[in-house]
Amino acid sequence: MDQRKRIEEMEKLLNESREALDGLEKSLEDYRETREKIRRLEKYYGSDEWHRDREDDAAGKLPGDLHRGVLTEDLVYDVLTDERELVRQMAEAAAEYLG
Which helix (H) or strand (E) holds 8? Predict the structure, then answer.
């Protein structure tokens, strides 16, 4: 590979790497800000309050225009399991980097 092509390729790699790292940094900042919200959701999910809210929903006591995805089992469970899987992947990536 001639010098010019090598430098152009490395410049492209540099720019792509910078963009990916900036995106990862932003995502980690967003996750750190969201972590407490996920913990609150996790505490609510399956609690006595959550069961009461589900019962009131089933009894028609909640307003019809109220979004109630949080009262389903699947949506909250999916968020919690997705978080665990992503944290596992981050730990694996960190171990590969550090190892």
Answer: helix 3-44
pTM for the full model? 0.81
The widest CA-to-CA distance across the chain, in whole angstroms, is 74
Identify residue 41 by its one-letter amino acid code. L
List % helix, strand, coil for the chain (3-state, nearest 5). 85, 0, 15
Segment 48-84, tens digit of pLDDT: 999 999 999 999 999 999 999 999 989 999 999 999 9
Helix 3-44 with 73-98: angle, nearest 10 deg: 140
The domain ranges of the chain are: 3-98
